[in-house]
Amino acid sequence: MISDKQRELLLLESFIVDNEDLEELEAKLAEFNIFEAIGVVRQEIRHSNFLAFLLDPSQNHRLDDIFLKRFLKRVLLETDNPTNTNNAKISPVDIDIADLTDSEIRREWQNIDILIHSQRNKLICAIENKIDSGEHSNQLERYQNIIDIEYKNYRKILIYLTPEGSTPSKANWIIYSYSQVVEIIDSICKSYKSTLGADIYTLMTHYSTLIRKYIVSDSEIAELCREIYFKHKQALDLIFEHLPDLQSKILSDKIDKLVKELLKPYIDSQKIFVDYYTGSIDFGPRDWENKFPKYSIYFKFDYRYDDVKVILQIGPIHNKNKNFRNNIFELAHNPKYSKIFKPTRKQINGKRITIYNRQISRKSNYKNVDIEDIRKEILDFWEDFMENDFVSIEKIISENIEIILNDN
Length: 408
Known about the structure:
By secondary structure, the protein is of the alpha+beta class. It has 17 helices and 12 strands. A hairpin with a 4-residue loop joins strand 4 (112-118) and strand 5 (123-129). It is flat, with a radius of gyration of 25 Å.
């Protein structure tokens, strides 16, 4: 009878010896790709930057408005919901006959990932780009309201771009996927290879390869990975158990520094109280610290594990807060506040209970520990959180203070 150690060794040997699928995968991954070399894999900001470059007629890709027009035509042609704004439909034909060379491409205007503005054609297009993160705090509704106010008499195209064509919260945002973007890039490379020149052609084909490798789930590499995993699940699970956690530690330290920077102005102004822990920071309105039993309710900026998130918790039970906890728990389950509170439990117990949860990002998405990408996600979240959810929750608690503090 073989020992557990011998069994594990046999699993690893069968995984690495004469594994044709693994050799094929290694060969594909070994191919040089400029975007991999500079750390662009799933970094949303970098993808938006490159798409903005291709869409911009003024850039030196030698395409003028060719890519922009083909992109907009395909978006309008492939959607089931033709854009209809100010009683004027925008059709692929309208785009085809238009001169869009005056188009201005803006990045992060009013937090919108990509904004395309053609004054000549009274056309505005917003692209909300999501790689791994999802919508938060009515983003699409807020962006649409901003555009409606700023560009009142413009025809508008609103695009929700995701790896698989996910459904947006607002019906008038057009669903579009990265696999469709890749098709456009490939078609441009095929039709305009001589126009592009070797440098831009290489850049675009490398980007197309990157998307097929890492972003779309039906890629050749994704399928190969699935085959390898199911054939060698036990060996791979064993490898995963022994992975070093060094990168996670480095990233947590960087996030810790950034979060402390964000909190400092609020601490200095006495707006919030704060307690620091390894991998998380507890905080809340200063008023809570004075009125409620200590740590009966508090926010937690949590980055100990794979998620980077902010949660609102009811603290563990102790002699002074039993009734308080019950009152907060019932308040969190009130249908009136269902848009803000999302309790993780239906029945109260003596442990910590989460009643609000917003994920900011997943640390596993940042293979190269690029703090600038994480910084932007956290900064965008924090500004929105402090202006909206933090204020709303503080107001709800304040309006129900008598109910919360009722000892009966």
